[in-house]
Amino acid sequence: MYITSREKAIIELIIKTSGKHTALSIASSLNVSARTIQRDLKAVEKIVNEFGLTLTRNVNQGLVIEGKNEQIFRLIQHLTNSEPIDELPQEKKLRLLLAILEEDVYKTQVLAGYLGISTATLTAYLDELAEWLSLYRVGLTRKRGVGVELHGTEANKRMALAQFLLQFFHEELIEKLFLLEKGKLGEDRILHYFEADDLRHVNSTVQTVFKGAPARFADSGYLEIVLHTCISLKRTLSGFPVERKDLPEAEVTIEYELIQEVTSRLGQAFDCAFSEGDVLYLARILKGTKWSGAEAFPYDSIVLAHMIRNVIKSVSEQLHVDLNKDFSLFQGLLAHMEPSLYRIKQNMGSYNPLREEIKRKYPVLFMAVKNSLEEEFTDIDQFSDDEIAFIVLHFGSALVMQEEHLSIKALLICPTGIGTSKMLKSRLKKEVAEIDVIEIKSIKEMSEGANLKEYDLILSTVRLPFIHAEYILVNPLLSEENIVTIKNYLKNNIESLTKGKHYLEQPEGGHQSQVSLDSMLEEIRDIQESIQSLIQNFRFYRMDGETSQEQILAKMLANAEGDQLLTNPEDVLQSLREREHKGGLGIPETNMALFHVRSQNVRRLIFQIAHLQDPCLVKGMDGKEVAMKNLLLMLAPDELSRREQEIVSLISTNIIETEEAILLFSSANEEMIFKKLESIFTEYLQSHFKLNR
């Protein structure tokens, strides 16, 4: 009977303090996450069953090993005499994968001896690895007298290794990386592959380069780019470069520049040269990660925005619930889908650690989302279950948010991505109605310092070795045990939690009501000023046949400067040129192009249209040329509030909402277009204030 050191420690703790230890307290004692302990308890249960004993929980969720005294004594004797086997099968498979990646050919007997396993076990491991590697177009062959050999491009080999690490060692990677940042990692080698100093240097370099980048990372995206960069460094130092010819063409201009800076710094530090293929490989990985954030997509990608609206509409109809007005859902999906579609089209794959749990807990929602995606995105062969599960989290968050009832301030530390943290926040509000405000922070934000005294309750989905405050470890999907633990905590600490606070049922207490009113008034001001600006500053120009696209834009910007809507029109024009260079602006299957940019030189929201006498060709959003007869100009300040983003997005998505809308905006009928804008805003205001009465 094999037993690991942790399983042995768990059994000893339960025997010594029968009924007093919960999974949470054991996790704290052994310095691991509660989820790790929950997994280990299944193995512990099997071990104690072998001795005719049972593992049970008392009314306070304390763990107890029950049975005859002589059987418990036999178990203690076995623990005393047993030598723990600490390396689990997945660790052995990782070592196996690393070994065959480093050598062209490896003899099976040598591999079996290296791993300390029988040839039969090695054969089983190789079968499982071969199946895994085939998902990434890497072949594994075994020839008698020759040995084990891998076949595939270097890019695919790196992808396979990275995804193996993310799938089976995701939590451990997060933990090691942040312990490393805090200088508390007491080991030189991580997961049998990464040197601690190398990983520390890569992490520091990525942080430095991306500090001034135009967007931010979700924690999952940050981990992914650090992992891929570290693997690329290791493979480059070992003499395995990525060949440029093995990678498909991709538009990764911004990503390429950032990665070039990262690899240049690492090349100098480690005295090595990254190939052009290495840089392009990492740029493609970066483009496929969640590094932009919802606020980066207020009105870009008009075609994608329209498709997402259709997906939301379809899911709403299937579930008999109206989510069409939920801008937070739309915005979150738009931010998620851009890199997601890129990953799918580039065959890059993705890993969702919560996939099976999401499918099990939300089967109907999962099916509805799957149906809607397949109906709308007909150019995608297949959405993987991992990708669908990510999208389900966004919808799950929106559905649960409709049932919010609030009242105590909690901090939620969740490093697994935007969708997951929103879902967990919404579940908390639904299941633990006593909680008033829930703030979400990433591990990175926590490690940079946060005032924990502001919060009555701290929850985290991973272990936090770098903070000293009391916190509760929870499952990202909030298990029943988590809910009981949180409610017990609130119940046991009710006096300290409610000290100096007023219940929501007593608004005359003042502070909470005043904050809500201030927030509401600010939103009303944003809505009013945004709509007023767009209506009052709407302009319609008719251009003669001699005018070029550049001249049209220059004239529109000069007039806007005259109306004191912007400053430095030359700089705004340059920003528009750069935006056009990044990707097409022509709206497919129309005669319109939407020129848009956010700039610090723009003072007010602007939407204007120029009608051309003769069409000119512009690059479309789908890469094909569009014969533009109507130039739509949309400008916004660099900083936008949530409501301002919502209103600008409202216009861009309404332009192609229906065939009728397309015809109207391309009609050159100024009066009809103006009336359409008024009706869009009127409907928005009626809907908004009806929903929030």
CATH top level assignment of the largest domain: Alpha Beta
Q: Would you identify the CATH architecture of the largest domain?
A: 3-Layer(aba) Sandwich
Helix content: 55-70%
Name the overall outline: globular
Residue-averaged pLDDT, rounded? 80
For this structure, the CATH topology of the largest domain is: Mannitol-specific EII, Chain A
Whole-number total of structural domains: 6
Number of strands: 15
Proportion of residues in extended strands? 5-15%
Major β-sheet strand ordering: 9-8-10-11
List the helices and strands and how they pair.
Layout lengths: L4 H12 L6 H8 L3 H17 L3 E4 L5 E4 L2 H13 L7 H14 L2 E2 L1 H8 L3 H16 L4 E5 L3 E5 L2 H28 L7 E2 L3 E2 H15 L8 H19 L15 H18 L5 H12 L14 H18 L7 H19 L9 H7 L1 H14 L8 H17 L8 E4 L4 H14 L6 E4 L1 H5 L9 E4 L11 E2 L6 H13 L1 H5 L12 H26 L3 E4 L5 H14 L6 H14 L9 E8 L6 E14 L5 E13 L4 H14 L3 H7 L4 H22 L2
Parallel strand pairs: 8-9, 8-10, 10-11, 12-14, 13-15
Antiparallel strand pairs: 1-2, 3-5, 4-5, 6-7, 14-15
Helix pairs in contact: 1-3, 2-3, 5-8, 8-10, 9-10, 9-11, 10-12, 11-12, 13-14, 13-16, 14-17, 16-17, 17-18, 22-25, 23-24
Structure description:
The chain is an alpha/beta fold and 693 residues long. It folds into 6 domains: 77 residues, Winged helix-like DNA-binding domain superfamily/Winged helix DNA-binding domain (Arc Repressor Mutant, subunit A), CATH 1.10.10.10; 64 residues, Orthogonal Bundle (Arc Repressor Mutant, subunit A), CATH 1.10.10; 132 residues, no CATH class; 98 residues, PTS-regulatory domain, PRD (Orthogonal Bundle); 89 residues, Rossmann fold, CATH 3.40.50; 170 residues, Mannitol-specific EII, Chain A, CATH 3.40.930.10. It has 27 helices and 15 strands. The strands form 5 sheets. A 4-stranded parallel beta sheet has the order 9-8-10-11. A hairpin with a 5-residue loop joins strand 14 and strand 15. The longest helix has 28 residues. The protein starts with a helix and ends with a helix. About 4% of the residues have low confidence.
